[in-house]
């Protein structure tokens, strides 16, 4: 059965800690909404802005696939596996927390803010060996088309995770239409507008709006502003 949900940007949870301003599409930390616990295997979608030189101290995770997508600035990462890296716009970072990891994330620059998406996906395997990966993609390859940035397949384009999920990003000119085909039966898509405006299955979505679509095989999109950017997250609707 077809089911669409619209989450307007101004209905998200919000937490402002001074050094961190975070918007939560789903229940997280002090924000709880019983109607927004998760969208299938998509558990967390946080839209974070971190002040210069500030960040998240060392903290643990387990049994979660954690994806970071930097949108602006430089984010420094350190973890208990010995990785020390910096990610910036065009990069995709993934951690399979598995049996347990600890990590920290800081804005590497003192005088610039950093903006990034933090996304948690329920895995399809528990207690895997923790791992870390990051890649740099050519953002020009998503002009007026979708670029795959994540999949379940280690040798496919983008990073990979322990889940039957596919992420795509695209940047479109006004009036450009495209269609997305569901890759695995039973999956749904959560579309998150990074900037601009889109028509998504006939519904209008503005900057930072999210639309969850399930029970369908194809989804029609159309940019209705210039320089319209979108992230599509296809995930299983059934978990466990």
Describe the structure.
Strand 18 and strand 19 form a beta hairpin. This protein has no helices and 22 strands. A 7-stranded mixed sheet has the order 1-20-17-22-15-13-14, with no helix packed on it. Strands 2-3-4-11-6-9-12 form a 7-stranded antiparallel sheet, with no helix packed on it. A 4-stranded antiparallel sheet has the order 5-10-7-8, with no helix packed on it. By secondary structure, it is mainly β. It has 2 domains: 125 residues, Jelly Rolls, CATH 2.60.120.10; 98 residues, Jelly Rolls, CATH 2.60.120.10. The chain is globular. The two termini are 21 Å apart.
Chain-wise SSE layout:
Blueprint: E1 3-7, E2 13-16, E3 20-24, E4 42-50, E5 55-61, E6 65-72, E7 74-79, E8 84-88, E9 91-96, E10 101-107, E11 114-121, E12 131-136, E13 146-151, E14 159-160, E15 166-172, E16 177-181, E17 187-195, E18 198-200, E19 203-205, E20 210-214, E21 218-223, E22 228-236
Parallel strand pairs: 13-14
Antiparallel strand pairs: 1-20, 2-3, 3-4, 4-11, 5-10, 6-9, 6-11, 7-8, 7-10, 9-12, 13-15, 15-22, 16-21, 17-20, 17-22, 18-19, 18-21
Structural class: mainly beta
The helicity comes to under 10%
Strand order of the largest sheet: 1-20-17-22-15-13-14
Report the CATH architecture of the largest domain.
Sandwich
| Total count of strands | 22
H-E string? EEEEEEEEEEEEEEEEEEEEEE
CATH fold group of the largest domain = Jelly Rolls
- CATH class (first level) name of the largest domain: Mainly Beta
The poorly predicted ranges are: none
Principal-axes geometry comes out as globular
What's the overall average pLDDT, rounded?
96
């Amino acid at each position: 059965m077809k089911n669409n949900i619209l989450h307007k940007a101004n209905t998200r949870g919000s937490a402002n800690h001074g050094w961190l301003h975070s918007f939560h599409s789903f229940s997280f930390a002090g924000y709880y909404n019983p109607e927004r616990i998760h969208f299938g295997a998509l558990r967390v979608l946080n839209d974070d802005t971190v002040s210069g030189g500030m960040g998240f101290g060392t903290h643990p995770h387990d049994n979660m696939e954690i994806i970071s997508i930097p949108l602006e600035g430089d984010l420094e990462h350190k973890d208990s596996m010995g990785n020390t890296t910096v990610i910036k716009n065009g990069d995709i970072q993934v951690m399979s927390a598995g049996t347990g990891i600890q990590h920290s994330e800081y804005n590497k620059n003192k005088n610039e803010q950093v903006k990034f998406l933090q996304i948690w996906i329920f895995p399809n395997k528990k207690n895997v060996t923790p791992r870390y990966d990051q890649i740099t993609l050519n953002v020009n390859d998503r002009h007026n088309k979708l670029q795959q940035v994540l999949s379940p397949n280690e040798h496919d384009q983008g990073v990979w995770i322990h889940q039957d999920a596919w992420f795509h990003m695209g940047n479109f000119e006004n009036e450009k239409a495209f269609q997305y085909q569901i890759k695995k039966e039973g999956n749904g898509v959560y579309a998150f507008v990074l900037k601009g405006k889109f028509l998504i299955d006939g519904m209008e979505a503005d900057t930072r709006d999210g639309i969850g679509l399930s029970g369908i095989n194809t989804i029609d999109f159309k940019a209705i502003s210039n320089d319209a950017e979108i992230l599509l997250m296809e995930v299983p609707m059934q978990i466990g």
